[in-house]
């Protein structure tokens, strides 16, 4: 499959990973075997890391608390940011880790069952790490869009009828 079609395939799969290979082949104008072979190769090379479902836990009544935590890091040895990021990524509470520009070095997103559990995680697991010089925690109040997926329905406001 040529590079342009490969990029198209990745764009479609990124947004809709459940589309069957037959439909992908039709969309791209290639054979089903080309699609399956390309997907297999992309998975093997690590280009496609995972297929993911975006879950709206609020819609199920499940209560999770998310927080974005900014970390100031002081590197004491030659290991660099990658080593501390890898260590932090190993915690099950951590949903994402990013090296960022600005006042802080790393930004992590965590999930817990309560604000208290998130606060405990920061105080007991993140802050004590020798490389961490400071933390700022921002609790997520509401998610409107996650991984490109809009999480709210477009309901039209119901207007009262006007009668004379």
Describe the overall structure:
The mean pLDDT is 90. By secondary structure, this protein is of the alpha+beta class. It folds into 2 domains: 3-45, Arc Repressor Mutant, subunit A; 57-145, Alpha-Beta Plaits (2-Layer Sandwich). Helix 2 (21-28) crosses helix 3 (32-45). It is built from 5 helices and 6 strands.
Count, helices: 5
How does the major sheet shape up? 4 strands, antiparallel
Give the number of domains: 2
Q: Any idea what the CATH superfamily of the largest domain is called?
A: Lrp/AsnC effector binding domain/regulation of amino acid metabolism (RAM) domain
CATH topology of the largest domain: Alpha-Beta Plaits
Distance between the termini: 66 Å
Which SSEs are present, and which pair or pack?
Layout: H1 3-15, H2 21-28, H3 32-45, E1 65-73, H4 80-89, E2 94-99, E3 106-112, H5 115-126, E4 132-139, E5 145-146, E6 149-150
Highlighted features:
about 20% strand, 5 helices, four-stranded antiparallel sheet, 6 strands, Arc Repressor Mutant, subunit A, alpha+beta, about 160 residues, about 35% helix, Alpha-Beta Plaits, single chain
């Amino acid at each position: 499959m040529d590079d342009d079609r490969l990029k198209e395939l990745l764009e479609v799969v990124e947004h809709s990973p459940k589309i069957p290979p037959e439909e992908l082949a039709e969309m791209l104008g290639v054979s089903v075997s080309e699609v399956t072979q390309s997907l297999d190769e992309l998975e093997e090379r690590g280009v496609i890391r995972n297929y993911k479902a975006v879950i709206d836990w609020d819609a199920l009544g499940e209560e999770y608390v998310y927080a974005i935590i900014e970390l100031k890091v002081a590197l004491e040895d030659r290991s660099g940011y990658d080593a501390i990021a890898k260590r932090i990524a190993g915690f099950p509470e951590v949903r994402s880790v990013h090296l960022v520009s600005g006042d802080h070095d790393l930004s992590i997103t965590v999930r817990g069952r309560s604000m208290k559990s998130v606060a405990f995680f920061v105080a007991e697991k993140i802050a004590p790490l020798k490389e961490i010089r400071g933390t700022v925690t921002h609790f997520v109040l509401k998610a409107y869009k996650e991984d490109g997926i809009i999480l709210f329905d477009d309901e039209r406001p119901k207007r009262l009828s006007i009668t004379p």
